[in-house]
Inverse folding.
């Protein structure tokens, strides 16, 4: 099964990372802040501007992105958790 | 009887699926989350942009779509439950 | 007496239908949901777009339409109840 | 004294009508719904669109109109009550 | 000292009028409604539209105007009370 | 140190004036209304309109202006209090 | 690791400065106001206007900026605290 986001949206999958405090202690799940980093899985065609041209989404499949808190819609596809984000809620791309 | 959505709207029918937990237990109806997946039954002509051109809705009859929580208007046609969605509330299409 | 809606509006008259439950019981008035189906009685000239062209309302006199909950203004004309709807609140047309 | 509404506005005067119930009883003032019907007394020049053209108000002096509930500003001119309405809050014209 | 309003704004001075009830009784200050009539003292240059043209304010110095309730900013200039109004909150002009 | 406001903004410094009541009594600080008069210290380049042209801010360094209540952001630069105002919140200019 | 802000956004790092009161007392952390001054670390490509042209962000890497209270999203990159700001929330640039 595949999922194709519509318009200026992206399907992303959360990146769970071990969180270590400044003093080196690994935090249990309940003490973690909700992660805001995710990997892009699929991207919509972008939005159509008023002249009929399509403005592409700025991220691509595989990009690691940071997104705005309280944004996105969680969905479950074949038992895995994903999030559908509006392109405007993607704040930036983490480059290695 | 047929129903023709106006403008950038779609008439959809909810897809009820048996929900099974990670541990394999089938959930009764009351424990289910409200499904957000639906099949497109009819599509409006789209919206007219400021130059008088019509921007078609991105989904077609038969598409299985995921829609935003708390969106849409429920209606009953000939005893069956449907939902009328704004095209902007359709987040993406599930492709097999 | 006639009533001419202004702009992108329609005058409609509610359609009261006998409501029968799945098990065949006719519901009394107090148990009914407020109907959302109405017949179009008169239509405004539509709205003027930014180039001065008029965009007509998509429905015509006699159409049976479904409208959004909590929309419209109720008025009484010669003792009968009508509703004035914004064209944007008309969700679709029921075709026989 | 005369009053000239500015822009897309109209000065109207409420039409008080004797209200009779279905069973023929004339209602006292306190039992009446606030009337929503008014006669147009003066009309502004309309609004200027983005190309500098003026879009006239759709009603004229003498028209009997129905307006949206909770709209308008009440003013008193030479001891009489009037209302200033935005053209957008005028729902339609009653034609005899 | 002079005051020049910026953009689509006007500086006005409230007109306090003796208020007499229908039965001829002059009301003391505390029983009066706040007046909504004012005299225009100075007018801004208007707003610049998207083509760079200036759209003038529709009122001129000396006009007696009626303004929307709860609009405007009160200021004191050389001990006298004035109000700065957005042009959109000026409902109309009283002509003698 | 200098501060350059960005876009359609101005850096202003409040003008504290001795406030004297109608009866000639000089008010202590706590009885004063917060002043709404300020002197312009620096001005941004203005905002870019949709055709790429820059629309300059209407005030200049040294102007004494009146601004809308509850607008602006207070900042401290080298121990002195300033306020950064959006150009839209500057109501007018006091001319001597 | 590098972070590339998308669109009209900037990645900034807060500037913590010793705060000294007027009377020369250095304030402990808890008595400090949250600083609103930051150094720009990375800048997005700007926003695309309706003609498809890109409008660059007005600040550059290394600029010391003042930003609006309650704006921005805090993120942690490699153990250090940063903030992602919308370009519209950057009020001005501090020049030495």
């Amino acid at each position: 099964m595949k999922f194709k986001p519509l318009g200026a949206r992206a399907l992303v999958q959360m990146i769970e990372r071990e969180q270590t405090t400044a003093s080196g202690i690994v935090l249990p799940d309940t003490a973690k802040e909700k992660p805001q980093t995710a990997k892009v899985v699929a991207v919509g065609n972008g939005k159509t501007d008023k002249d009929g041209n399509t403005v592409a989404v700025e991220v691509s499949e595989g990009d690691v992105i940071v997104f705005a808190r309280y944004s996105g819609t969680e969905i479950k596809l074949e038992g895995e958790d994903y999030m559908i984000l509006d392109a405007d809620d993607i704040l930036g791309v983490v480059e290695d």
